[in-house]
Write a structure and sequence with these properties.
Elements: E1 2-3, H1 26-38, E2 42-49, E3 55-62, H2 72-89, E4 96-101, H3 112-117, E5 122-131, E6 134-145, E7 148-153, E8 156-161, E9 165-171
Parallel strand pairs: 3-4
Antiparallel strand pairs: 1-2, 2-3, 5-6, 5-9, 6-7, 7-8
Length: about 180
């Protein structure tokens, strides 16, 4: 069972620094954000997966430039500090596993700024409710403007409001990865 942190945002309003995390509850954000910022990082996404046994808290971090180059050592440091904060605040019932990672090349798109950074790339988008009879869209992100993602799929072009996006990911088609920068 996947339990996403849910919250509400207002469409048409400019996003403040804190409101860009529309699906992360304020109590959780109060623990995670200061730790990420202290390490010079930004939160891209966070979720809680619960099922049988132990829960999993997943946090995706990135650099302010959005290059995905978060060192493993930084993830480990953030994980230790966030884990302590979650325990003190008692925000996760029972035992849990905490996973902190970078977005990677096939990156999670959790904020509006993440969409703006990957215009021109291939994306997978799942909406909270059907849009034109479908919830899944796969294709090129043509633009991200005024809170809407314009995606060109094999079935045509779609404008998807950010407020309807449940989850999204940029990916490289056919598993091709860009050449490493030297």
């Amino acid at each position: 069972m996947l339990a996403r942190f849910t919250g509400a945002g207002e469409e048409g309003k400019e996003l403040s620094h804190h409101s860009m995390y529309r699906d992360i509850p304020p109590d959780f954000l109060r623990v995670v954000e200061p730790v990420a910022e202290a390490h010079g990082l930004e939160i891209v996404d966070a979720s809680l997966k619960q099922g049988r046994g132990r829960a999993r808290v997943l946090i995706v971090l990135d650099t302010p430039s959005g290059d995905g180059r978060v060192l493993v050592d930084e993830c480990a440091k953030v994980s230790r500090e966030v884990g302590h904060g979650l325990d003190v605040a008692d925000l996760v019932a029972g035992s849990y596993t905490l996973e902190v990672s970078s977005p990677g090349i096939d990156r999670t798109l959790g904020r509006e700024v993440d969409f703006a950074r990957v215009v021109g790339r291939q994306v997978k988008v799942e909406t909270r409710e059907p849009l034109d009879g479908r919830r899944r869209f796969k294709g090129e992100l043509l633009a991200f403007e005024r809170g809407e993602a314009s995606v060109r799929t094999e079935a045509g072009d779609f404008r998807i409001p950010f407020s309807l996006i449940l989850r999204a990911q940029a990916f490289h088609p056919d598993g091709l990865k860009p050449e490493a920068k030297r």
